[in-house]
Amino acid sequence: MKMKRQIKKVPIKSMQKLFKINISNFFMRSILLVSCNKRTKVAQKREYGKFLIES
């Protein structure tokens, strides 16, 4: 019975906070991923340029 009461007592505000934190984390990750992808693309272009020059 105590467990059920504890689950029911979870306030909505804390849920909203968790939700906001999750969203912000997701945005940060996506931004980081995009920036990393851009960097790797630039690095790949440089490598490709080196390859063309060498061959």
Properties at a glance:
55 residues; mainly alpha; 0% strand; rod-shaped
Mean pLDDT: 77
Q: What gap, in angstroms, lies between the N and C termini?
A: 74 Å
Helix content: over 70%
Strand portion: under 5%
As a whole number of angstroms, the C-alpha radius of gyration is 23 Å
Secondary-structure-derived class: mainly alpha
User: Low-confidence spans: pLDDT under 50, at least 5 residues?
Assistant: none
Q: Report the sheet with the most strands, covering strand number, pairing sense and barrel closure.
A: none
Shape: rod-shaped
Count of individual beta strands: 0
Order of helices and strands: HH
Number of helices: 2
Q: Could you explain how this protein is built, in words?
A:
- The protein starts with a helix and ends with a helix.
- The model has no long low-confidence stretch (mean pLDDT 77).
- The radius of gyration is 23 Å and the shape is rod-shaped.
- The protein has a domain at 18-54.
- The longest helix has 43 residues, at 12-54.
- With 55 residues, the protein is mostly helical.
- The chain contains two helices and no strands.
